[in-house]
């Protein structure tokens, strides 16, 4: 059973269970000269999102997933992956491996859009709930 929490956003309360409308794929250049994945974020709209929707456990990636994450999702320290899984991944129907692999796939398939990023933080692309690219709100 999915846990329910209330999220205060823009003067109203919303039930965080399955409320998001799309995903944002965020990238950053904080600790690298190249853009790296920041995270895949379920979004209600451009300023509101569910977070920490259910309690999840984190398992360090291994094998090819670890290799790919080190190549494309490198943070400034070793807490970014766990943080992104707990804060954002917990609000999706995906398990941890699917969440990370989906994020990597979307990043690699849309890396040509990096040319549109001008700041150190950037929303690379937005996707509907079936992961088709859409215009960001």
List keywords for this structure.
single chain; 137 residues; alpha+beta; Ribonuclease Rh, Chain A; four-stranded antiparallel sheet; two-stranded antiparallel ribbon; 23% helix; disordered N terminus
Descriptive report:
The protein is built from 3 helices and 6 strands, in the order ββββαααββ. It has a 4-stranded antiparallel beta sheet. Strands 1-2 form a two-stranded antiparallel sheet. Strand 3 and strand 4 form a beta hairpin. Helix 1 packs across helix 3 (96-109). The protein has a single domain (6-134), classed as Ribonuclease Rh, Chain A, CATH 3.90.730.10. The radius of gyration is 15 Å and the shape is globular. The termini are far apart. With 137 residues, the protein is an alpha+beta fold. The chain has helices at 63-72, 80-87, 96-109; strands spanning 6-9, 12-15, 22-28, 36-43, 121-127, 133-134. The model is unreliable at 1-16 (pLDDT under 50).
Short structural description:
With 137 residues, the chain is α+β, with helices and mostly antiparallel strands. 23% of the residues lie in helices and 23% in strands.
